[in-house]
Amino acid sequence: MTAARTVPARRRAAVPGAAHLRGFLFGWLEQAGVLIAITLEGFRKTWAVRRWAGEYVEQCWFIARVTTLPVMLIALPLGGTIALQVGQIVRQIGAESGTGATVVQALVTQVAPVAAALLISGAGGSAMTSDIGSRRIRDELDALEVMGINPVHRLVTPRLWAASTVGVMLCSLIILAGVVGGFFFNVVREGVTPGSYFDGATSLLRLSDLTVTLFKAWVFGFIAASVSCWKGMTCGYGPSGVGRAVNQAVVVAALLVFAANYVISTLAYTLFPPRI
């Protein structure tokens, strides 16, 4: 009798948990659908360049202004750290000249596009989310719709292309700064000749590596901007809603960037096997 009573009780206790899980999954699927819809809608009006050219230039300047200095401060010690760690290992086998190849290969293929995307998401993307979120809580987005202006075309489209453009530029800057930092630690500190450093730096790289890297930077910047605009346009009302949206935008953008980096890197290594 006791067992017969406890089984329905367990079933009744399990039902709310299953309903909560279904609600959680459906909620995330709904949010993902909204993100994809905003991104595709913003990308659809790309051809109308005259409508968003001014905002595009302004956003490019803003993102570049808030990310250039942090990029330099990160890339210089990052390249030096890679050179220092690798130099300690290759010195034991007498291959110090291979440090340059390792530093540049790591910077070009993996570090530069991911670092550029994270900086765009953290500095420029948070500003995008707070700006669009502030417009939302002031009902400016609804006012644009009342005037017959699509807020996605007016606000999202220029930010998508601005973040992508600046991402490609920052990627090149990170590579340059990282090579300089690696040169300092490998040549000045470790005593490797400059010719050996730069000869090793170009021995493993191909044009396809740089092409894939710039493509990654473009895609990652696009992802960071789309997530930031999505969170800004769907944030909760009030200052606390905007603050939560900013935090969520940075986290979600970083997760999507790492996932996209894995997919693109796998495809790139399959199509263009690394040189040995």
Describe what this molecule looks like in 3D.
The protein has 276 residues and is mainly alpha-helical. The chain has one domain (45-271). It contains 8 helices and no strands. It has helices at residues 2-44, 49-90, 99-137, 140-146, 151-189, 194-203, 207-233, 239-271. Residues 1-7 and 9-14 have low confidence and may be disordered.
Draw up the topology in text.
Blueprint: H1 2-44, H2 49-90, H3 99-137, H4 140-146, H5 151-189, H6 194-203, H7 207-233, H8 239-271
Helix pairs in contact: 1-5, 1-7, 2-3, 2-5, 3-5, 3-6, 3-7, 3-8, 5-7, 7-8
Features:
276 residues; transmembrane helix; membrane; MlaE family ABC transporter permease; mainly alpha; Permease_MalE
Task: Briefly summarize what is shown.
By secondary structure, the chain is mainly α.
Strand content: under 5%
Point out poorly predicted stretches. Answer: 1-7, 9-14
> How many DSSP helices?
8
Q: Sketch the topology as an H/E string, one letter per element.
A: HHHHHHHH
Shape: elongated
**SS class:** mainly alpha
Total E-strand runs: 0
Query: Fraction of residues in helices?
Result: over 70%
The rounded Rg comes to 24 Å
The overall pLDDT average reads: 80
Largest sheet: none
User: End-to-end distance, in Å?
Assistant: 72 Å
Number of discrete domains: 1
Transmembrane segments: 62-84, 160-185, 217-237, 249-272
Protein name: MlaE family ABC transporter permease
InterPro entries: Permease_MalE
Organism: Actinomadura fibrosa
